[in-house]
Amino acid sequence: MAETEQSMVFTNPKKRGPKDATADDDGFVTGTGDWAAVSTKRVARNDPAGALASVRHEFGEHGGVNMSIEASATFTVMEADTLRRMFAGELGPDRDFFIYSRHCNPTVLNLGRQMAALEGTEAAYCTASGMAAISSVLIQLCGAGGRVVASRCLYGGTHALLAHFLPRACGIRVEFVDIDDIEAVRAAIRSDKEATRVLYVEMMSNPTLAVADVPRLSAVAREEGLKLVVDNTFTPMVVSPARLGADVVVHSVSKFISGGADIIAGAICGPASLVKSMMDLQHGSLMLLGPTMNAKVAFEISERLPHLSLRMKEHSKRAMAYATRMKKLGLKVIYPGLEDHPHHSLLASIANPDYGFGGMLCLDMGSEERANRLMHHLQNTTQFGLMAVSLGYYETLMSCSGSSTSSEMSPEEKARAGISPGLIRMSVGYSGTLEQRWNQFERALALMQQQHHQQQDAAIYCKA
């Protein structure tokens, strides 16, 4: 595909630069050569909200403050020869020539500009789901017979994709490792270096909330000649993986970015060269597999992005408050904002200022039975939250990960990943007041404990 057809994917005028580059005042890297890592000091100054605000504002067709929705699947031309020129790559979306919405849609294109600004990448392409984004990237980068080294703790659907579907359908092989062990990561890559194409991690792991050391992992990826792909679904705004050296950032936009639990969507943020290759008419996974985002969905997400920063700050604020109070009650709580979390210092050093430590926390109740009993009271007795999968909603969502979102993993795989049977994953919402919600949590916990004591007393009575 000719360059003109794809120049629209360049969305960030200050893009990441090469190894011998120096960071400018905005934390971007300039220079010549290969990819460069931005220093932590520069990265810490990044403001994703400011980057989003710098994207050009699209007005509606008749001057509306909101952009219009281009709902067409196909696009007309004035001259017959224009179609030939578009398919030959001579004319493209950069000049307002569109072929078909599976390839590129104006409304979806605008959301891509916003996502690229959010993550600080050259380009972005928005997809129908987060899994569509992940699978399309891996298929494009690996190809048949390629290999992925991946974190052993991943969302269950991603784990199933890597462990079962891609090996069966595409011949892509995968090795799961402890990404905290850099030497183990390096050894896994070198065990079949020629075939290994991708190092795949989650910025914050689902559900254990382990934080990936992206600066160190990106250095290993560069040294070994492969791409670092980071899923940033849990921490939009909080962390900017591309500023830390990640080559590609993927999102399930359905979660925090959408915020309404009413949309399924995904995004791929990375180099323009990658997006260009994925949109290629002959060889592109986006063009040929068709994981297309609907223009109406793109419009809705675009309208929600301006207040993402406000929502993420409140999610993080509530999660920190709950985690601190839960710990004081003697509960086993996992939250990166707590100083006893093994990655607290790491996240503090790489996070963007003012966004806290994210809106996810885990509560380990020891057994699935205890976890289910607490969640029952939290939803059905005190109305603290909802028993549901997914995350990023304005209400608190909770699920027992081992039997739900990580159920695709075997017991041995869950044990290696640190997923205990009683682990409750909470996506902390911001509806109601903090004190109102905390009182609801305490009441549910008290009821659960009361029932436990009653059962113990009954057991003693029966034995007597």
Automatic annotation (TrEMBL):
The alphabetized list of GO BP terms reads: transsulfuration
Quote one Gene Ontology molecular function term. Answer: carbon-sulfur lyase activity
For bias type Polar residues, the affected ranges are 1-10
User: Looking at the record, which segments are called Disordered?
Assistant: 1-27
- Cofactor dependency: pyridoxal 5'-phosphate
GO CC annotation: cytoplasm
N6-(pyridoxal phosphate)lysine is found on 255
Alphabetized UniProt keyword annotations: Pyridoxal phosphate
Protein family (similarity comment) = Belongs to the trans-sulfuration enzymes family.
- Mind telling me what this protein is named? Methionine gamma-lyase
